[in-house]
Amino acid sequence: MGNAVRLQLLHVLREHPKTVSEICLEIGLPQSNVSRNLGCLRGIGVVETRRNGSDVVYQITDEKVVEVCDLVRSVLVEQIQKRSRSIE
After folding, report:
1. Which domain holds residue 56?
2. Could you say which DSSP state residue 44 is in?
3. Partners of residue 51 on adjacent β-strands
4. 41-80 core/surface letters (b: 16 or more CB in 10 A; e: else)
5. pLDDT at 77
6. Most exposed among 19, 37, 54, 60, judged by the fewest C-beta atoms under 10 Å?
7. Does residue 22 carry a pLDDT above 80?
8. Mean pLDDT, residues 26-41
9. Do 60 and 1 touch, CB atoms closer than 8 A?
10. Taking the mean position of all CA atoms in its chain, how far away is CA 42?
11. Cα–Cα distance measured from residue 39 to residue 67, given in angstroms and rounded to the nearest whole number
């Protein structure tokens, strides 16, 4: 979960389910990289798949995952702001 690509994938999937091709177009990473990291997220139960014809669609399994990512992002932003103020 601490991998930057995996966090980016979760951010992209928060809006709605997407195929690997849609994700690749949106974030500009190669399909092999996206697929490998989606596989890791699927392995720990954070994302799941469903078939839509010949396409495999990925989606986040639980809205709480999005909430956790938002909370972590908020904490990191606060830490950056505190460090920035202490440097001034």
Report:
1. 4-87
2. T
3. 56
4. beeeebbebeeeeeeebbebeeeebeeebeeeeeeeeeee
5. 86
6. 54
7. yes
8. 96
9. no
10. 11
11. 21
Grouping H, G, I as helix, E, B as strand and the rest as coil, residue 2 is coil
pLDDT (tens digit per residue) in 46-72: 999 999 999 999 999 999 998 988 888
Assigned token pair, 55: 């396409």
Q: Which residue blocks in the chain are alpha helix, DSSP H?
A: 4-13, 20-27, 31-43, 63-87
Q: How many independent structural domains does the chain possess?
A: 1
CATH code for the domain of 47: 1.10.10.10
pLDDT of residue 21: 95
Contacts 24+ apart (CB under 8 A), 48-55: 50/17, 52/19, 55/19, 55/21
